[in-house]
Amino acid sequence: MTDRRTELADNLTRVEERISSACAAVGRERQEVTLVVVTKTYPASDVRLLAELGVRHVAENRDQDAAPKAAECADLPLTWHFVGQLQTNKVRSVVSYADVVHSVDRIRLVTVLSAAAVRADRELDCLIQVALDAESGERGDRGGVAPDGVGALADALAGAEALRPAGLMTVAPLAGPFAGRPRAAFDRLMEISTGLRADHPAANMVSAGMSADLDDAVAAGATHVRVGSAVLGVRPRLG
Ligand SMILES: *Cc1c(COP(=O)(O)O)cnc(C)c1O
After folding, report:
1. Which of 6, 52, 186, 235 has a CA that sits 20 to 30 A from residue 134's CA?
2. 10 Å Cβ neighbour count for 87?
3. In angstroms, how far is CA 235 from the centroid of its own chain?
4. Ligand 1 atom closest to Cα of 212?
């Protein structure tokens, strides 16, 4: 094995152990949690190694980087997740490779995503990004809708052609009442998820937890964890 392959394999083993033990601690089955490896800032060659090591879900947050990488890796059996703030002028490109969009946070984006998906003859799973630190009716600094905007967005997704309301996503807030309390943040997300599923039973994905707090997310009930640096290493630049 190459050094990089060994490094990625070792890191994956450690992340796998964290997910397994977090599941075991709360009596969840390991299969209830999907590992999504966030490959942003890392090259397509790493994505290829990850696929060889059994990874099936990868995520990116910038279309400029993701589009060429996804094209280079089109032969691999991967599901691509888009997890970054999404500008409407990038939607057409994102829809060409992404299977899941985690960052739906405004009605306008639903409209544009739906039109692009119809045109590309694709079906997209859409997660609503919740900003747990946003005030009523507002969006957060890092994207996401305030919790009281989730219902309207879910209804819009359910009514949009070629889109499915698939669940919720959050990033543990750095400010506000949940700062430094990822477990409390993820518990709150689960409450919002319960409310969402009352109206949209199939919208049962809960995307929460990154390298630093995936254990808390799994304990709270996350179905998808988005892990970057714990698998690939600390990123050389902000991304
Ligand atoms: C970068 C990123 C991650 C992964 O973060 P790590 O701390 O490297 O695990 C997860 N989710 C989103 C939305 C990201 O942008």
Report:
1. 235
2. 11
3. 18
4. 7
